[in-house]
Design brief:
By secondary structure, this protein is of the alpha+beta class. The chain is built from two helices and two strands, in the order H-H-E-E. A hairpin with a 6-residue loop joins strand 1 and strand 2. It is flat and about 65 Å long.
Length: 98
């Protein structure tokens, strides 16, 4: 038996739902504000911190722990990594930077 690959593979429920949506769009009952953004550009720009900004009034909200004995600082990316991420024994490069 031959299969018609161009035939619609949608169920009757999906076809009914599409036809209802098409009728709603054609009648103009869509939300008038759906394409608009309610964000003020000046207000959004106030929330961005520029590099070199004075952050002396800010406080840390996380606890910073010192480097542990089983960690090293990668000389390529300067991230503190676990020794299992070391590219070679005795090297201070992580697997990603090697």
């Amino acid at each position: 038996m031959a299969t018609d690959y161009d035939a619609s593979r949608k169920t009757e429920d999906e076809q009914k739902e599409e036809s209802l949506e098409a009728r709603r769009l054609a009648s103009g009952d869509q939300d008038k504000t759906s394409g608009k953004v309610d964000e003020d550009e000046a207000e959004a720009a106030e929330n961005f911190e520029l590099p070199g900004a004075d952050l002396s009034h800010e406080t840390l909200t996380i606890e910073v722990t010192p480097k542990q004995a089983d960690e090293f600082t990668c000389t390529g990316c300067f991230l503190v990594q676990h020794v299992s991420r070391r590219s070679a024994p005795g090297a201070d490069l992580c697997n990603d930077c090697a």
